[in-house]
Design a protein that fits this description.
Elements: E1 2-5, E2 8-9, E3 15-16, E4 20-22, H1 36-42, E5 47-49, H2 65-87, H3 90-95, H4 99-125, E6 141-143, E7 193-195, E8 216-219, E9 229-230, E10 248-252, H5 262-266, E11 280-284, E12 286-288, E13 310-312, E14 316-322, E15 337-341, H6 345-348, E16 357-359, E17 371-373, E18 380-385, E19 389-390, E20 404-405, E21 419-420, E22 423-430, E23 438-440, E24 454-458, H7 463-475, E25 478-479
Parallel strand pairs: 7-17, 8-25
Antiparallel strand pairs: 1-4, 2-3, 5-6, 8-14, 9-10, 10-11, 11-24, 12-13, 12-23, 14-22, 15-24, 16-18, 18-22, 19-20, 19-21
Helix pairs in contact: 2-4
């Protein structure tokens, strides 16, 4: 047996194409119908696909939250470790068709089963009932490069405007030194980029109706010129260092890390011009795939987690709060937590994806699952429109999603039982060299796909200022 194709394209990670075998004298075309043998020839493992346990836990008793959050973070670390084992064992994978199954996916399943058991025990001890589907979520699979992701367990209603490009073509070559096939990284590849000029306008917005709240409130918090980065996620993995396995940009509250309590945030310094806004705004950093090492090349969240390249400071960051097309808004509760997008959308599927990529001068054309190639002189734009409907009771939920919802993309109305709140819109602009030479940080197994982009927000406005925000929006004024 000789390896027909067993490329594990690494450096910063790896599009791992393994387990492709053929007899040295065989013609693959001649044996196209040979069933199992042909399946073996074509089998590839680009990444590891695991069920997202967090999305399956909409309700967790308060007494179990700490333990469950810790186990969810452990599950992420287990996947990361398994992916890194996949990435560093291309020779073994190439020589043994069962290596990935027996040496990577099998042990991963055992570790996940133990964590899932502890999650169930934590929930039961606190008087809850673990979801039945937990029992079947231990097993992970090897994903081929061209397999679609699986549907999310708890789909939310994403906004309707960022459509996939139609009639567009990807560039023929991937970015220099970045990732993707032929460049020695773990993504993205050439197919993840599209010329923005080839995309048709696709933005659709709901029309304002009688009773709409038409105003805006803009808060100026800088663009992270001071370089506040960490790979934590205090919303999803509180108390866990490197809970994100990728680096975040932070503006606003300067006390934010994995261990920040509400009191610590309330007393933290802020980069916002209005000192009444101590909110936390963060998102994955964007890196130039130019072969230059960043200071975190040997650190968690950086090189250790397959995120390499020069971190690009945004050219500008705009943080604006909009109204609702059908009703007035109510003030956000203090310490409300919102996550928009899905950091695992490449393997989860796009039910919770909310990436929105474009270029200056072309923002009526938004991309959900592609990075834009901008014309010379134009800049790359990331836009996050956060959920703007609140259940009226909870500042967070166990899966960090079900306490908030998106308005209806056609009418702008909130779902029954939800109240309209000011909608945070983050617009982040970057100056990058022309072409496909950049990517956002991601969990290693997500291969830096653009669809995994996401934003996080914790409201730490003073109550008085938040009431002013809502009043301004409801009056139809433009306030800062």
């Amino acid at each position: 047996m000789t390896v027909a194709s067993a490329a594990l394209l690494l450096g910063g990670g790896g599009l791992a194409a393994v387990n492709v075998y053929a007899q040295a004298h065989e013609n693959p075309e001649r044996n196209a119908g040979s069933g199992t043998q042909q399946q073996s020839q074509q089998q590839q493992v680009a990444t590891i696909d695991c069920p997202d346990v967090g999305n399956a836990l909409p309700d967790v008793p308060d007494g179990a939250r700490g333990g469950v959050d810790g186990e969810l973070a452990a599950l992420d670390s287990q996947i990361t470790e398994a992916y890194q084992r996949l990435a560093s064992n291309r020779d073994a994978a190439g020589q043994d068709p069962g290596f990935v199954r027996n040496s990577i996916l099998g042990p991963l399943k055992d570790k996940r089963a133990a964590s899932l058991g502890r999650i169930g025990q934590d929930i039961q001890r606190s008087g809850g009932t673990p979801p039945r589907q937990l029992e079947g979520m231990a097993e992970c699979t090897g994903r081929a490069p061209d397999q679609p992701g699986q549907p999310s367990q708890q789909p939310s209603q994403p906004p309707g405007d960022p459509a996939s490009p139609s009639g567009s073509a990807a560039p023929s070559q991937p970015g220099t030194g970045g990732g993707g096939e032929g460049t020695g990284g773990n993504g993205p590849d050439a197919s993840d980029f599209v010329d923005i000029t080839s995309v048709r306008p696709n933005v659709v917005t709901a029309r304002n109706q009688r009773g709409a709240s038409r105003g805006t409130f803009t808060t100026a918090c800088g663009r992270n010129q001071n370089g506040k980065f960490n790979p934590d996620n205090v919303i999803v993995a509180p108390g866990v260092s490197n809970g994100a396995h990728h680096m975040h940009d932070y503006v606003g509250n300067q006390a934010t890390d994995a261990f920040s309590s509400d009191d610590a945030l309330a007393n933290g310094q802020t980069s916002c011009r209005n000192q009444g806004d101590r909110s936390t705004y963060y998102w994955p950093v964007l890196r130039l795939q130019n072969g230059k090492d960043e200071a975190d090349a040997n650190a968690d969240g950086g090189g250790k987690d397959q995120n390499v390249g020069e971190i690009r400071t945004p050219s500008s960051v705009t943080l604006k709060f909009d109204g609702n097309p059908t009703s007035k808004v109510v003030p956000m509760p203090r310490f409300l937590r919102i996550i928009t997008g899905d950091a695992k959308a490449f393997t989860n599927g796009d039910a919770n994806a909310n990436a929105s990529w474009s270029c200056t001068g072309f923002e009526n054309r938004q991309l959900k699952d592609k990075y834009p190639i901008c014309p010379r002189g134009a800049k790359v734009v990331r836009t996050f429109r956060f959920q703007s409907c609140w259940d009226g009771a909870n500042a967070d939920s166990a899966n960090h999603r079900t306490h908030v919802a998106f308005e209806d993309p056609r009418t702008g109305a909130c779902p029954s039982g939800f109240k309209a709140i000011p909608q945070l819109v983050q617009r982040i602009v970057y100056s990058v060299p022309p072409g496909p030479g950049f990517a956002v940080d991601s969990f290693p197994e997500q291969l830096h796909k653009p669809v995994t982009d996401h934003g996080d927000f914790i409201n730490v406005f003073d109550d008085k200022l938040m009431r002013r925000v809502a009043s301004c929006i409801n009056r139809g004024d433009r306030c800062t």
